Amino acid sequence: MQDKSNKNTTSTKSDKTLAKPIVKAVQDTTAAPSLFQNHLLTVQSAKPQLHITNYDYWIGGILLSLYILFVWLYVSNRKKLNQIIREFYISRTGNRDQFSIGNRASVFLSIFFVTTLTIFINQGLAYYGLHLFTDNAIFLGIVTALFILIAYGIKFLSIHILGHIFKVQKAASEYSMSIFLFCNVVGLFMLPIVVCLTLMKQVSPVVFIYTGIGILVVFMAVRVIRTLILGFNNSRISKFYLFMYLCTLEILPFIILAKLFILNVR
Q1: Range 177-181, long-range pairs (CB < 8 A, 24+ positions)
Q2: pLDDT tens digit string along 221-234?
Protein backbone atom coordinates (compact mmCIF):
# COMPACT_ATOMS: atom_id res chain seq x y z
CA MET A 1 0.00 0.00 0.00
CA GLN A 2 2.86 2.31 0.88
CA ASP A 3 4.46 1.64 -2.48
CA LYS A 4 1.25 2.53 -4.27
CA SER A 5 0.89 5.75 -2.32
CA ASN A 6 4.53 6.64 -3.00
CA LYS A 7 3.97 6.01 -6.68
CA ASN A 8 0.87 8.19 -6.68
CA THR A 9 2.66 11.07 -4.95
CA THR A 10 5.62 10.83 -7.29
CA SER A 11 3.29 10.78 -10.33
CA THR A 12 1.38 13.83 -9.10
CA LYS A 13 4.66 15.64 -8.45
CA SER A 14 5.91 14.83 -11.92
CA ASP A 15 2.57 16.00 -13.41
CA LYS A 16 2.86 19.29 -11.55
CA THR A 17 6.38 19.80 -12.79
CA LEU A 18 5.25 19.10 -16.34
CA ALA A 19 2.29 21.47 -15.97
CA LYS A 20 4.50 24.40 -15.06
CA PRO A 21 4.83 26.87 -17.96
CA ILE A 22 8.15 27.11 -19.64
CA VAL A 23 9.50 30.61 -19.16
CA LYS A 24 12.04 31.70 -21.71
CA ALA A 25 14.75 34.07 -20.82
CA VAL A 26 14.01 37.52 -22.19
CA GLN A 27 16.95 39.30 -23.66
CA ASP A 28 17.63 42.70 -22.21
CA THR A 29 17.54 45.24 -25.09
CA THR A 30 18.11 48.35 -23.02
CA ALA A 31 21.83 48.09 -23.54
CA ALA A 32 21.52 47.42 -27.30
CA PRO A 33 22.73 50.18 -29.66
CA SER A 34 19.97 52.46 -30.95
CA LEU A 35 18.91 52.32 -34.58
CA PHE A 36 18.90 56.12 -34.67
CA GLN A 37 22.62 56.42 -33.94
CA ASN A 38 25.77 55.95 -35.99
CA HIS A 39 24.11 56.80 -39.32
CA LEU A 40 24.67 59.40 -42.04
CA LEU A 41 21.29 61.10 -41.69
CA THR A 42 21.29 64.68 -40.47
CA VAL A 43 18.80 65.86 -37.87
CA GLN A 44 16.41 68.44 -39.28
CA SER A 45 14.30 69.07 -36.21
CA ALA A 46 14.22 67.67 -32.67
CA LYS A 47 10.40 67.94 -32.54
CA PRO A 48 7.87 66.12 -34.77
CA GLN A 49 6.52 68.13 -37.68
CA LEU A 50 3.44 67.80 -39.89
CA HIS A 51 4.06 66.56 -43.42
CA ILE A 52 2.09 68.69 -45.87
CA THR A 53 2.10 67.67 -49.53
CA ASN A 54 1.99 69.97 -52.52
CA TYR A 55 -1.48 68.78 -53.53
CA ASP A 56 -3.77 71.43 -54.99
CA TYR A 57 -6.46 71.46 -52.34
CA TRP A 58 -8.44 74.10 -54.18
CA ILE A 59 -9.20 71.57 -56.93
CA GLY A 60 -10.50 69.13 -54.31
CA GLY A 61 -12.70 71.88 -52.87
CA ILE A 62 -14.09 72.71 -56.31
CA LEU A 63 -14.82 69.05 -57.08
CA LEU A 64 -16.53 68.63 -53.73
CA SER A 65 -18.67 71.70 -54.43
CA LEU A 66 -19.58 70.32 -57.87
CA TYR A 67 -20.53 66.97 -56.36
CA ILE A 68 -22.77 68.63 -53.76
CA LEU A 69 -24.34 70.77 -56.47
CA PHE A 70 -24.93 67.71 -58.66
CA VAL A 71 -26.60 65.78 -55.81
CA TRP A 72 -28.85 68.73 -55.03
CA LEU A 73 -29.67 69.22 -58.71
CA TYR A 74 -30.40 65.51 -59.20
CA VAL A 75 -32.69 65.35 -56.18
CA SER A 76 -34.61 68.55 -56.92
CA ASN A 77 -34.60 68.50 -60.77
CA ARG A 78 -34.22 64.86 -61.74
CA LYS A 79 -36.96 64.96 -64.38
CA LYS A 80 -35.54 68.09 -65.97
CA LEU A 81 -32.06 66.59 -66.13
CA ASN A 82 -33.40 63.56 -68.00
CA GLN A 83 -35.26 65.86 -70.39
CA ILE A 84 -32.10 67.86 -71.15
CA ILE A 85 -30.10 64.70 -71.92
CA ARG A 86 -32.88 63.28 -74.15
CA GLU A 87 -33.30 66.62 -75.92
CA PHE A 88 -29.63 66.63 -76.96
CA TYR A 89 -29.94 63.29 -78.76
CA ILE A 90 -33.57 63.49 -79.91
CA SER A 91 -34.59 66.83 -81.38
CA ARG A 92 -38.22 67.59 -80.59
CA THR A 93 -40.44 70.54 -81.29
CA GLY A 94 -41.78 70.88 -77.77
CA ASN A 95 -41.50 73.78 -75.39
CA ARG A 96 -37.83 74.77 -75.24
CA ASP A 97 -38.18 77.47 -72.60
CA GLN A 98 -37.26 74.89 -70.00
CA PHE A 99 -33.83 74.54 -71.67
CA SER A 100 -33.21 78.27 -71.96
CA ILE A 101 -30.42 80.22 -70.29
CA GLY A 102 -32.86 81.56 -67.71
CA ASN A 103 -33.66 78.08 -66.44
CA ARG A 104 -32.08 77.17 -63.08
CA ALA A 105 -30.97 73.69 -64.10
CA SER A 106 -29.45 74.96 -67.34
CA VAL A 107 -27.49 77.65 -65.49
CA PHE A 108 -26.01 75.12 -63.06
CA LEU A 109 -25.18 72.72 -65.90
CA SER A 110 -23.38 75.57 -67.70
CA ILE A 111 -21.31 76.06 -64.54
CA PHE A 112 -20.54 72.32 -64.66
CA PHE A 113 -19.38 72.62 -68.27
CA VAL A 114 -17.06 75.60 -67.72
CA THR A 115 -15.59 74.23 -64.48
CA THR A 116 -15.02 70.64 -65.60
CA LEU A 117 -13.56 71.68 -68.96
CA THR A 118 -11.23 74.16 -67.22
CA ILE A 119 -9.95 71.53 -64.78
CA PHE A 120 -9.58 68.98 -67.58
CA ILE A 121 -7.49 71.36 -69.69
CA ASN A 122 -5.31 72.41 -66.75
CA GLN A 123 -4.72 68.84 -65.59
CA GLY A 124 -3.80 67.80 -69.11
CA LEU A 125 -1.34 70.67 -69.46
CA ALA A 126 0.18 69.90 -66.06
CA TYR A 127 0.60 66.20 -66.88
CA TYR A 128 2.42 66.87 -70.13
CA GLY A 129 4.46 69.69 -68.59
CA LEU A 130 3.12 72.36 -70.94
CA HIS A 131 3.47 75.89 -69.56
CA LEU A 132 1.58 78.57 -71.45
CA PHE A 133 2.27 81.95 -69.85
CA THR A 134 2.33 81.26 -66.11
CA ASP A 135 3.12 78.52 -63.62
CA ASN A 136 0.35 79.59 -61.24
CA ALA A 137 -2.36 76.94 -61.55
CA ILE A 138 -5.07 79.13 -60.00
CA PHE A 139 -4.40 82.05 -62.33
CA LEU A 140 -4.25 79.71 -65.33
CA GLY A 141 -7.58 78.17 -64.32
CA ILE A 142 -9.24 81.60 -64.06
CA VAL A 143 -7.88 82.63 -67.47
CA THR A 144 -9.03 79.34 -69.04
CA ALA A 145 -12.54 79.71 -67.61
CA LEU A 146 -12.77 83.31 -68.84
CA PHE A 147 -11.55 82.24 -72.28
CA ILE A 148 -14.28 79.55 -72.50
CA LEU A 149 -16.96 82.01 -71.40
CA ILE A 150 -15.82 84.71 -73.84
CA ALA A 151 -15.48 82.25 -76.74
CA TYR A 152 -19.00 80.87 -76.30
CA GLY A 153 -20.38 84.35 -75.65
CA ILE A 154 -18.98 85.56 -78.97
CA LYS A 155 -20.31 82.43 -80.65
CA PHE A 156 -23.88 82.95 -79.38
CA LEU A 157 -23.77 86.65 -80.27
CA SER A 158 -22.50 85.92 -83.80
CA ILE A 159 -25.25 83.35 -84.40
CA HIS A 160 -27.87 85.80 -83.18
CA ILE A 161 -26.57 88.61 -85.44
CA LEU A 162 -26.29 86.33 -88.49
CA GLY A 163 -29.81 85.08 -87.90
CA HIS A 164 -31.15 88.63 -88.07
CA ILE A 165 -29.06 89.53 -91.12
CA PHE A 166 -30.16 86.52 -93.18
CA LYS A 167 -33.71 86.49 -91.77
CA VAL A 168 -33.39 82.97 -90.30
CA GLN A 169 -34.05 83.75 -86.65
CA LYS A 170 -35.79 80.43 -86.01
CA ALA A 171 -32.92 78.37 -87.43
CA ALA A 172 -30.41 80.50 -85.51
CA SER A 173 -32.37 79.96 -82.31
CA GLU A 174 -32.43 76.19 -82.95
CA TYR A 175 -28.69 76.16 -83.53
CA SER A 176 -27.99 78.21 -80.40
CA MET A 177 -30.14 75.77 -78.42
CA SER A 178 -28.16 72.85 -79.84
CA ILE A 179 -24.87 74.43 -78.68
CA PHE A 180 -26.36 75.23 -75.28
CA LEU A 181 -27.57 71.64 -74.83
CA PHE A 182 -24.13 70.40 -75.90
CA CYS A 183 -22.51 72.43 -73.11
CA ASN A 184 -25.03 71.24 -70.53
CA VAL A 185 -24.69 67.54 -71.33
CA VAL A 186 -20.90 67.54 -71.77
CA GLY A 187 -20.47 69.08 -68.31
CA LEU A 188 -22.29 66.13 -66.74
CA PHE A 189 -20.32 63.49 -68.63
CA MET A 190 -16.96 65.17 -67.99
CA LEU A 191 -17.46 65.35 -64.21
CA PRO A 192 -16.45 61.70 -63.44
CA ILE A 193 -13.54 61.98 -65.88
CA VAL A 194 -12.23 65.06 -64.09
CA VAL A 195 -12.68 63.45 -60.66
CA CYS A 196 -10.73 60.34 -61.72
CA LEU A 197 -8.03 62.42 -63.44
CA THR A 198 -7.52 64.53 -60.32
CA LEU A 199 -7.85 62.02 -57.49
CA MET A 200 -7.13 58.52 -58.86
CA LYS A 201 -3.36 58.08 -58.84
CA GLN A 202 -3.33 54.28 -59.27
CA VAL A 203 -4.28 54.58 -62.96
CA SER A 204 -2.23 56.49 -65.51
CA PRO A 205 -3.70 59.93 -66.25
CA VAL A 206 -3.34 59.22 -69.97
CA VAL A 207 -6.33 56.87 -69.75
CA PHE A 208 -8.62 59.61 -68.45
CA ILE A 209 -7.15 62.29 -70.73
CA TYR A 210 -7.86 60.29 -73.88
CA THR A 211 -11.24 59.21 -72.52
CA GLY A 212 -12.17 62.85 -71.98
CA ILE A 213 -10.98 63.76 -75.47
CA GLY A 214 -13.03 60.88 -76.88
CA ILE A 215 -16.15 62.14 -75.08
CA LEU A 216 -15.63 65.64 -76.47
CA VAL A 217 -15.14 64.28 -80.01
CA VAL A 218 -18.30 62.16 -79.84
CA PHE A 219 -20.44 65.01 -78.56
CA MET A 220 -18.93 67.40 -81.10
CA ALA A 221 -19.77 64.95 -83.90
CA VAL A 222 -23.35 64.69 -82.65
CA ARG A 223 -23.64 68.47 -82.60
CA VAL A 224 -22.27 68.80 -86.15
CA ILE A 225 -24.69 66.15 -87.41
CA ARG A 226 -27.60 67.96 -85.78
CA THR A 227 -26.47 71.20 -87.40
CA LEU A 228 -26.37 69.53 -90.82
CA ILE A 229 -29.86 68.12 -90.33
CA LEU A 230 -31.12 71.54 -89.26
CA GLY A 231 -29.55 73.21 -92.30
CA PHE A 232 -30.81 70.65 -94.83
CA ASN A 233 -34.35 70.86 -93.47
CA ASN A 234 -34.42 74.64 -93.88
CA SER A 235 -34.67 75.76 -97.51
CA ARG A 236 -33.69 79.35 -96.66
CA ILE A 237 -30.22 78.33 -95.51
CA SER A 238 -27.60 78.01 -98.23
CA LYS A 239 -25.92 74.62 -98.16
CA PHE A 240 -22.65 76.16 -99.34
CA TYR A 241 -22.57 78.74 -96.54
CA LEU A 242 -23.55 76.04 -94.06
CA PHE A 243 -20.64 73.91 -95.20
CA MET A 244 -18.22 76.86 -95.02
CA TYR A 245 -19.46 77.74 -91.53
CA LEU A 246 -19.00 74.21 -90.22
CA CYS A 247 -15.51 73.93 -91.72
CA THR A 248 -14.23 77.29 -90.45
CA LEU A 249 -15.91 77.68 -87.04
CA GLU A 250 -16.63 74.12 -85.94
CA ILE A 251 -14.20 71.64 -87.49
CA LEU A 252 -11.12 73.77 -88.19
CA PRO A 253 -10.55 75.00 -84.59
CA PHE A 254 -10.84 71.45 -83.31
CA ILE A 255 -8.31 70.22 -85.91
CA ILE A 256 -5.88 73.02 -84.95
CA LEU A 257 -6.16 72.16 -81.25
CA ALA A 258 -5.65 68.45 -82.00
CA LYS A 259 -2.58 69.24 -84.12
CA LEU A 260 -1.06 71.42 -81.40
CA PHE A 261 -1.75 68.72 -78.81
CA ILE A 262 -0.08 66.02 -80.91
CA LEU A 263 2.99 68.19 -81.61
CA ASN A 264 3.50 69.12 -77.96
CA VAL A 265 2.99 65.73 -76.32
CA ARG A 266 5.61 63.96 -78.40
Answers
A1: 177/96, 177/99, 178/91, 178/223, 178/226, 178/227, 178/230, 179/152, 179/155, 179/223, 180/99, 180/101, 180/106, 180/110, 180/156, 181/84, 181/87, 181/88, 181/99
A2: 888 888 888 778 77
